[in-house]
Amino acid sequence: MLQLAIACVIIALIAALLGFGGIAGSFVGAAKILFVVFLVLAVLSYLGGTYFQRRTH
């Protein structure tokens, strides 16, 4: 997920350099959404892992 967000940022930078402002803005928006989704899933994974680890011991 994080790699996809980074790829969107790179595509947005390339599009901005080539003068495609609208497309670059779209890719930056997609990268922001993917990054937030990544953060939420990472936090949930961490919390779930600590919860189940405590429960089994």
Q: Secondary structure elements and their pairing?
A:
Elements (H helix, E strand, L loop, with lengths): L1 H16 L3 H36 L1
Low-confidence stretches: none
Sheet/helix structural class:
mainly alpha
Provide the succession of SSEs: HH
First-to-last CA distance = 31 Å
Please give the oligomerization state of what you see.
Answer: single chain
In total, how many domains does the architecture comprise? Answer: 1
Largest sheet: none
Specify the helix fraction band.
over 70%
Shape: rod-shaped
Number of strands: 0
Instruction: Calculate Rg over CA atoms.
Output: 17 Å
Count of separate DSSP helical elements: 2
What's the rounded overall pLDDT mean?
A: 85
Strand content: under 5%
In short:
It contains 2 helices and no strands.
Could you describe the 3D structure shown?
There is one protein chain. Helix 1 packs antiparallel against helix 2 (21-56). It is built from two helices and no strands. It is 91% helix and 0% strand. It has one domain.
List keywords for this structure.
about 55 residues
